[in-house]
Amino acid sequence: MSNLALAFAEAFSLFNILMIFAGVLLGIIVGAIPGLSAPMAIAIAVPLTFYMDPLTALAFLVSVNKGGTFGGAISGILLNTPGAPEAAATALDGHPMAKKGQPIRALRAALFASVGGDFFSDIVLILVAAPLALVALKLGPVEIGALVVMALAFVSELLAKSPAKGMIAVGFGLLVASVGADPTLAIPRMTFGFIDLQGGVPLMSVGIGILALSEVLVQLERRFRTTESTEAQALDMSQSETDRLTCHDVRRIAPTIGRSAVIGTLVGALPGLGTTLAAFLGYSAARRASRDPKSFGKGNIEGVAGSEAANSAVVGANLIPLLALGIPGNIAAALLVGAFIIHGLAPGPWLFEEQPVLIYGLFISMLFATCMNFVVGNLFLRWFALVLRIPAHITFPAIVFLCIVGSYMNEQSLFAVGVTLAFGVIGYLMRQFGIPVVAFIIGLILGPMLEHSLSQTYVLTDASLAGLMDYPIAMVLYLLAVVILFRPLLRRKKRGADDIGENSP
Amino acid sequence: MMAALVLMIGAAVLLIFVVPNQTTEGWEGEFSQAFLPNAAAVLILGASAVLLIRSVLTTRRDGGTADNDNASADQTFWIVCGLGTCGFVLALVLLDRAGFLLGGGAVITAFGMAFSHQHKLQIAILAVAFPPLMAVLIRHGLGLVLP
User: Fold this and answer.
1) What CA–CA distance (Å, rounded) separates A462 from B101?
2) pTM of the predicted model, to two decimals?
3) CA–centroid distance for A364 within its chain
4) What span, in angstroms and rounded, lies between the C-alpha atoms of A314 and A261?
5) How close does chain A come to B66, measured CA to CA in Å?
6) What is the complex's ipTM, to 2 decimals?
7) Which helix (H) or strand (E) holds A146?
8) Are A144 and A453 spatial neighbours (Cβ–Cβ below 8 Å)?
9) Which ranges constitute the DSSP H helices of B14-119?
């Protein structure tokens, strides 16, 4: 009880409240800029948290994520140019609504749905994470190693169009993770003589480069392919009688929000599925359940609520595997791992035992940040629309500079800046060839955990398969990993056999 | 197809030359520090081999026209890639030699001009004002001095 009281006191300290406010504001602004997304906002914001205490830092970053997730809807609705892929589903009905002269109604519906979905997933996180962590604490290194292998298989299969590309991304992540001192002998390896690499490749420098800088290059390429005259123009937000969210609207979208919140939470709790899938699943569920499915795509408010509630519900739920198992499920969670590490904490079930005040404080801060998102979103809605008027030639050069400064602040060395710049180009190449950067980041983060668990497994099982038989849970997890990896192959074979069956006389 | 081939060759080089030279052998019966890099290289090698085989099969089936990996990697992509690489190398040299204020200003100008060379004044104002503003904020907010 005293832990809970302490957590309340820390979560509601003036500085924490201010940082939550700042985080939500920053998240919405960055998320609203076309081409920028919530994970990018987190990547840029992480260096700002170096000198904060862990709870404030995490609360700030979670607030950035929450704000950024809603912010994506602003450009989607007003410009039909989603800030992030998940906002594309919101734009399907949001933009037609805005074109009909109801931009405020669409934005408020998106905000209401976003906050609803987010709040639901926060509650699920609070209820589920602790019991799951209790189970996870009973797992030994053999089972943890198997769990990480399964998570990597899951991520590589789901995050790319082809599992082979997902495996390349994970392999590359593990390769970069192997740079520096190994966990058993603590002898440097793969450093090529660079002293700066003896502590490993700086995680946040890689994250900033591969997420934010590569996106600048993507936007530069887009700029080269389009002329300024063909750019989307923001819709006018002039006041009109019909342009407001009514009680009738709220009653109409409430069931949609509830349904999508459940979908988003389920998707967010599973590693690798991500917000885009959740948004489109939420949208299609809303369409199926609607009395007027034909109006979807033409400005149906349920479409806006369905997608926005689902993609926002991922935000809280993606912390379930992170806090309960130590496995980041998506890019935002992976970046939060970086923030945990910066503050000397290893995310995982042990945090519930070792840092109860931090965990309770984080949960309280998350709920408060959701409320703050609603307040800030409502108060400054018209102001956020002005962000869309900032031209790309101002936004992106400023982001390049922020990335450089952020990376420098992380390690206080130009070597880290070099790593960020190099991974900016690598990330751009990876995106171009369809190799998922998210799978790479998750591989990079889970690499040390995997190696540590496998080295213990090696000792505990006497490096034999027979020894592994004593660990049935691990065996099941390894088998699941194999099934996940070879599932597409089996599916293709089955499809091939079906085709032959259909074509044979 | 080319990308898969390059990845395969890279992974093979890693396995044969790089990992053995960049890792130390532990005592017998001990978990080798070469395990993770080797496993990663094998994963990349295997996956890129699958991609290559699939690409060859698709090309044969479609009569030599299909090349999914390079389909979107056109001239514009390589121009941006080259510009980005040059810009980043230049940024690193400038930051090292001229510091964050001058170097940062130059980086902002270079990228601003790449995005739009019609708004020189706006970009110039940003290049002059933004790095000092950030330096002041970081100095007073976080107590860190940018070189």
Assistant:
1) 57
2) 0.84
3) 20
4) 8
5) 15
6) 0.90
7) helix A141-158
8) yes
9) 19-22, 35-61, 68-71, 75-115
